[in-house]
Predict the 3D structure of the following.
Amino acid sequence: MNKEHIKLSATAAKLWFGTKQVLKNVTVAFPENKITALIGPSGCGKSTLLRCFNRMHDLSPDARIEGKFLLEEQNLYKGNLTATAVRRRIGMVFQQANPFPKSIYEKINYGLKINDIPKHERPAIIENALKESYIWDEVKDDLQKPATKLSGGQQQRLCIARTVALRPEVILMDEPCSALDPISTSKVEELILKLKKDYTIVIVTHNMQQAQRIADKTVFMYLGEIIEAGDTHQLFNKPQQEMTGNYVKGHFG
Ligand SMILES: Nc1ncnc2c1ncn2[C@@H]1O[C@H](COP(=O)(O)OP(=O)(O)OP(=O)(O)O)[C@@H](O)[C@H]1O
Ligand SMILES: [Mg+2]
């Protein structure tokens, strides 16, 4: 059996918003070139945990973080490391595409600009990212069209294109399919499965079928703690914890 290489991890992570503790003592590891699903009832801290890896709480004055967040050996909260540098290596795809009326082209170009990618290199990178995200054929005739005019599924693949354009090592996805119909969902899932060859992927989902379709590993969270983590098939079919079994069978959450 191959030993898994851990790409991303948190050790004894704790997070408070003001006096409210949202992450309690989270230790979790995400293996390289695998898809890990993060599941658990609403409010248990899935998005909060994901956002820690992307330095998204930096600007929340009431958020206090303890513990260690590592990308391989790199401490993501080390003094002089900027959030931009972290996000270059760890990309994030959100639930809803943001509503700014930028063009398809500019959506991707923007990230390249703020990361100082030379101007002459950008058109090829953008084309490539769109191809890699299985959306090129649907948009190539008019890259200047406002991205808001795309369908939900197309916008989601565009968000993924924007992320892969920067060649991160890890892609974090927070409910990327929650607003999509089954056909768009299956397109995005097919894309995610293809991307795992090149990226380490963590995906938050409320869709138990989706987790079982695409995730190698599954992590179950409840009230700010990891209850159980393991191979997806095992976690769904032979959970070690009673609470995991109840959740995946839909008894609560
Ligand atoms: N910026 C914030 N300030 C204060 N409390 C917050 C903030 N963001 C999240 N919370 C609280 O932290 C807890 C965890 O929220 P989080 O968004 O991580 O949950 P989640 O597991 O992603 O839920 P869902 O499945 O509904 O998206 C919730 O109780 C939420 O109200
Ligand atoms: Mg969430």
